[in-house]
């Protein structure tokens, strides 16, 4: 068993994928991706969890390129480099996804922060990524338009 990614993110949770299991896809990060995962967990997830006062579900973290292709992910997905995670406050109910989005926006370094679908009140989940350097601080909203996902820039105020 691998060590935890951080105090509150287990290795197993960070690499678990039902699609990978169903299709016998190896979903193991490289050492570089693992280092990226640790940084993202320490700098974003752990402060978020502390703010939530309890568990926050990590619904997607590392994806091998094979797994990413299988699920139809972007070829440039930061999940493949251990630089992105999706979190959902609804799973445990201690914090709303809107609160998650606002907390990260105001208190954490990030490359991209995405309000994933949902509505004007609440995202369905939150995607956050963190690069080693050159973080763009992009706050975006994912919406479906004519069956395709579009990303709209959000005002950071």
From TrEMBL:
Record keywords: Plasmid
Gene3D superfamilies referenced in this protein's UniProt entry, alphabetically: 3.30.1380.10
Source organism, top-level taxon: Bacteria
SUPFAM superfamilies with a match to the protein in the record: Hedgehog/DD-peptidase
Record-annotated membrane-spanning stretches: none
Residue runs in coiled coils: none
UniProt xrefs under Pfam families: Peptidase_M15_3
UniProt-recorded name of the protein: Peptidase M15
